[in-house]
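Need the bound structure for adenosine-5'-diphosphate, inputs here:
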Amino acid sequence: MISAQVIWSKALPVLQEEMTPTSYKTWIKDIQPISLEGNTLILMAQNETYVNTLRQFYAGIVTECVNKANGSNYNVSFIMKQENEPVVSVPTQGSGEQGVFFGVQSKYTFDTFVTGESNRFAHAAAVAVADNPASAYNPLYIYGGSGLGKTHILHAIGNYVHEMHPEFNICFVSSEDFTNDVISAIKYDTREELRNKYRKLDLLLVDDIQFIGGKEATEMEFFNTFNALHGANKQIVITSDQSPKDLPFLQERLRTRFSWGITADIKPPVVETRVAILTGKAERDHVDITGDALLYMAEKFSSNVRELESCYNRVVLYADFSKRTTIDRSFVEVVLRDYVSSEGKHMVTPELIKQVTADYFNVTVEELVSTRRDKRIAVPRHVAMYLCRTLTNISYPDIGKAFGGKHYSTVMYSCDQIASEIGNRTDITTAIDDITNRLTNDLTPFPSRN
Ligand code: ADP
Ligand code: MG
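Answer from helper R.:
Posting the output first, comments after.
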């Protein structure tokens, strides 16, 4: 039987041909073909953002290219990568060269981590630990607010140590996954197995430890794991949103142990660091974006790098939609103005409608607002005007303005035209449904600004 890998490998060159280089590189290149379930090709993307974006914006073209390349009639379905599957499922390694290397994401490395005053100490401590596991600081405990790079540093330590010591047994685990492991070990009476797995590690990376607080059995298990590893001179790195003294733990002795090694906090980066983070991303993505535009974004998102990144991703995505090669400040302003209302909520605006509609019909926004009357352009224009009328509360004259200064009667006519075709012409009905779906379901949860 033909495998998902074969199908996908044939589709890739076609996708590359059909898509812009940025889209291809950003959304398609890293997809992993998983399996063929009946007639459906299952594809895995790295996280929720990717899956949402692929489902909303690229499902059509991916399906088309897969089928074009394979002369087939498959459906595609996108699933999310399970970042940290339970450790119990790790295949036990023999006494060979390679150690267990589990849960660490290769994309987070020290190379891509930008340092500044706010994280310099935490970064230095992390590098010291990665250089000399179990002899520099043990445990290393890193804490700070959301989206400030704690998880990134944790993975970076894992990647670094793995590179230096491929024979080491390394595991990255979120405290939720640890908790789940404990729960299933109790349920299936596999505690001994669980212990063996964790206790033979050379490096244990535990993310967001605050979540095990108050769960008695999990705390107990973690306490024992900690003691076993620490006693055997194995490195432990822990992250949390709070300092050890503020942790909601039942067990004082656990809290105390977290302060045995070194504690480092991360604060929100200053604007220069935020710009540097974006500059690094733009360089890696080969995105042409002005310094002014980067500064504008960096100024808008000050307390959370994750939000800053998601803003950047959105800007890049929309630049791609509107076939823009250079992103400047005014483009970013438009994107941000249109996608973030004063309450920080996603808003459907004529700008957004035009972009998504143009993308759907594979025309440009310029064509959409032009005076051209050929069907290829006129139908999308009518649809976009109709959507402006139904999804926003903008008047006919203002819609006319948004479409290159057309008279309001033209807008009325177009809207009536579409209204009368809905239900009769399936292509129009599908387009309206599809575009409305894209417009009302956000691409990614857009950050609120506060
Ligand atoms: P936390 O775990 O503290 O909530 P993450 O490590 O998940 O935050 O970081 C959120 C995003 O911001 C990640 O994509 C990460 O790569 C990025 N990031 C955060 N800080 C930095 C930094 N100093 N340099 C580069 N990227 C960063
Ligand atoms: Mg995190």
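Comments: Residues 150-151, 207-208 surround magnesium ion (ligand 2) (CB under 6 Å). The longest strand covers residues 32-37.
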